[in-house]
Design goal:
The protein folds into two domains: about 300 residues, Transferase(Phosphotransferase) domain 1 (Transferase(Phosphotransferase), domain 1, Orthogonal Bundle), CATH 1.10.510.10; about 110 residues. It is about 50% helix and about 15% strand. It has 16 helices and nine strands. It has a six-stranded antiparallel sheet with strand order 1-2-3-4-6-5. It has a three-stranded antiparallel sheet with strand order 7-8-9. The radius of gyration is 28 Å and the shape is elongated.
């Protein structure tokens, strides 16, 4: 069992993470006071062992972090957080029994002794049990409740992802690895990805834009809100928000920071409306536009399940267009020029018609010019921007603007077959 969702070939270390047999061969007999009995799983951050504790007598999971992950400063921080993590007590959070260091052949290595969870990873559980949307939302509420509790204790996870969430045999969630990611800042996580592509898909897929950009000062509880949005997106649709596997890291980071994922409603009509809006708000690129807390995210899920009005609202057309404009300045500039030309041409034509109605020839010439501009606006420009990412709102805006203008000319152009044809095409 891997602790990350997917592994890719590591260009620096083509052999990738050690295999289970290799990890077993290298397994120490003891970590602290815990006797190791087997390998549970492994990933980019470390290896998880099954172990026995003598006093009290119980089976535990021991996560041993890779020594290359930790500087002296991070080791100190890791130890300082141990006491706080041990106090986390919530039904949805795997209990941490001890956080400490042990002496290995590689020097001091940090370890976490935690509750051994019998069950399945989140996505495996969802798939094997063929959960309904309602059942998935119930699990999301449980996950959110656990994360919200940790936030109230001043603990931010930083690395929420489906592989860090187990579902017990009784059907309840258990969130793992609180404190592991928080001991590693965003810059270090990105550096890990540069040298261990196996962590790329497992972590970056659910990482917020502020984390992906390496700005650790911007990371706060809303970064976990974003990760929960990504988890919800994957659970509900079966798709990642961004396909960042097998692409260069800089391009993957750009996608996370700039590209808007497909709306959930495109995968199933069932998701249109509340669910699409709730998940979309959690996944906002600008953290100021996300839910201010995980609790607010959970509250909206509960409102939806109770058939009550949700607090979140879909992004306005103006906001969607402004986001598109930032990503596609050339296309938007061209659209604005054409739209302005259309408006000016319409105003000028109306003015001339009022000023000299008897100048039929001139008026018809102006009408022909307007038709040409409108046709360009409705058909040519929309086709040109059609293939740009996120262009759908802009195409709709261009088409509606042109259509409204053409319709305003309809009364004036009774009997004009050319205009009637243009209007018919536009409609």
């Amino acid at each position: 069992m891997n602790t990350d969702d997917t592994y890719s070939m590591d260009p620096i270390n083509p052999d990738g993470p050690p295999t289970a047999s290799e990890s077993l061969a290298a397994m120490p007999e003891y970590v602290g006071n815990y006797k190791l009995t087997g390998v549970v799983g492994q990933g980019g951050m470390g290896i998880v062992y099954k172990a026995k504790q003598e006093n009290p007598h119980r089976d535990v999971a021991i996560k041993v972090l890779r020594p290359e992950q930790m500087t002296e400063k991070r080791l100190q921080r890791f130890e300082q957080e141990g006491e706080l993590l041990g106090k986390l007590n919530h039904p949805a959070i795997a209990k941490v029994y001890e956080v400490g260091l042990f002496n290995s052949v590689e020097g001091k290595q940090p370890f976490i002794a935690m509750e051994l969870i019998e069950g399945q990873k989140l996505l495996d559980y969802v798939e094997s049990n063929k959960l309904t949307t309602e059942e998935k939302l119930v699990l999301l509420e449980e996950i959110g409740d656990g994360v919200a509790y940790a936030h109230q204790q001043s603990v931010v996870h930083r690395d929420l992802k489906p592989s860090n969430i187990m579902v017990t045999n009784e059907g309840h969630v258990q969130i793992l690895d609180f404190g592991v990611a928080s001991s590693l800042d965003s810059e270090n996580q990105l550096q890990t990805m540069l040298t261990d592509v196996g962590q790329l898909v497992g972590t970056l897929t659910y990482m917020s834009p502020e984390q992906a950009s390496g700005n650790s000062r911007e990371v706060d509880t809303r970064s976990d809100v974003y990760a929960l949005g990504g988890i919800a997106y994957k659970m509900l649709s079966g798709n990642y928000t961004h396909a960042v596997n097998l692409i260069p890291l800089p391009e993957a980071i750009r996608m996370i920071c700039e590209d808007v994922p497909a709306l959930l409603g495109t995968f199933s009509p069932e998701f249109k409306g509340d669910i699409e809006t709730i998940v979309g708000k959690a996944l906002e690129k600008d953290k100021e536009r996300r839910y201010k807390s995980v609790s607010m995210f959970v509250d909206d899920i509960q409102r939806h399940r109770n058939n009550e009005p949700i607090e979140a609202r879909p992004p306005s057309t103006v906001y969607v267009l402004s986001r598109f404009a930032k990503r596609n300045k050339v296309a938007v500039t061209a659209a604005c020029i054409v739209a302005m030309t259309l408006i000016l041409a319409t105003v000028f034509s109306a003015y001339k018609a009022v000023e000299a109605r008897e100048a039929t020839v001139v008026a018809e010439g102006r009408l022909e010019q307007i038709q040409q501009v409108a046709t360009t606006l409705i058909f040519d420009l929309t086709d040109r921007v059609g293939n740009l990412p996120g262009a759908t709102p802009l195409r709709e805006y261009i088409a509606m603007t042109g259509l409204e203008t053409l319709r305003s000319l309809e009364e004036e152009a009774v009997g004009n077959d050319d205009l009637a044809i243009t209007l018919a095409k536009a409609c």
